[in-house]
């Protein structure tokens, strides 16, 4: 007995799976393209913005890590920026800006919960490219931008937790991550 290849007998579910994968990955690809377009001019040197002063002169552990400057001074973010600077040098200052765009486009597209690709891409594009993002990028508030990028993930987790209470831990994690990134 000759068997048909998987997906042929069931009415081509492999094509449906490929379309679902495209719909899921298209916002991420859009974010990568946006990151490349925005961050390419800065690839040759250090990103110097108004509030973002990442450089070799900063200590790896900021003073806030020892409790000397309040409780929510953005310690994990400052340590992360310091590690990026030590590991990657000048390129490390561009990485947080480059990470923002794929996170923001993917998160906004996930909020729609629909398979209409143009709507998801439009949501991701408008969420990642707007005057608020330009202003935060211009003044160097990359921590605020990273928190803003995680906000749709937190909202989606809170919506899921409202419908299914056993998902409350996931919602708490995303809300905490959003708060932890946005304080610097």
Describe the structure.
The chain is an all-alpha fold and 184 residues long. The chain has helices at 13-39, 75-88, 95-112, 117-128, 131-139, 142-163, 168-181. The chain has a domain at 24-141. The chain has seven helices and no strands. The longest helix is centred in the N-terminal third of the chain and has 27 residues, at 13-39. The chain is globular and about 45 Å long.
Topology:
Elements: H1 13-39, H2 75-88, H3 95-112, H4 117-128, H5 131-139, H6 142-163, H7 168-181
Overall mean pLDDT: 78
Number of helices: 7
Radius of gyration: 20 Å
Decide which structural class fits the backbone: mainly alpha
- The counted number of beta strands is 0
Assign a percent range to the helix content.
55-70%
Sheet with most strands? none
- Stretches where pLDDT is under 50 for at least 5 consecutive residues are none
Shape: globular
Strand content: under 5%
Sequence of secondary-structure elements? HHHHHHH
What is the terminal-to-terminal distance?
Answer: 66 Å
Record keyword descriptors for this entry:
184 residues, mainly alpha, 63% helix, 0% strand, globular
Would you kindly provide a brief summary of this structure?
This protein has 184 residues and is mostly helical. It has helices spanning 13-39, 75-88, 95-112, 117-128, 131-139, 142-163, 168-181.
């Amino acid at each position: 007995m000759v068997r048909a290849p998987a997906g042929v007998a069931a009415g081509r579910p492999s094509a449906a799976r490929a379309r679902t994968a495209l719909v899921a990955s298209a916002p991420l690809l859009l974010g990568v393209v946006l990151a490349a377009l925005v961050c390419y001019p800065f690839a040759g040197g250090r990103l110097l913005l108004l509030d973002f002063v990442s450089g070799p002169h900063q200590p790896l552990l900021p003073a806030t890590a020892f409790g000397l400057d309040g409780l929510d001074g953005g310690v994990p973010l400052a340590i992360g920026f310091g590690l990026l600077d030590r590991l990657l040098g000048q390129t490390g200052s561009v990485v947080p800006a480059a990470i923002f765009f794929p996170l923001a486009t993917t998160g906004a597209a996930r909020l729609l919960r629909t398979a209409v690709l143009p709507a998801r891409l439009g949501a991701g594009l408008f969420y990642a490219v707007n005057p608020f993002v330009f202003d935060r990028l211009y003044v160097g508030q990359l921590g605020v931008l990273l928190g803003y990028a995680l906000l749709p993930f937190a909202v989606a987790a809170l919506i899921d937790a409202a419908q299914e209470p056993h998902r409350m831990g996931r919602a708490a994690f995303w809300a905490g991550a959003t708060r932890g990134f946005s304080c610097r």
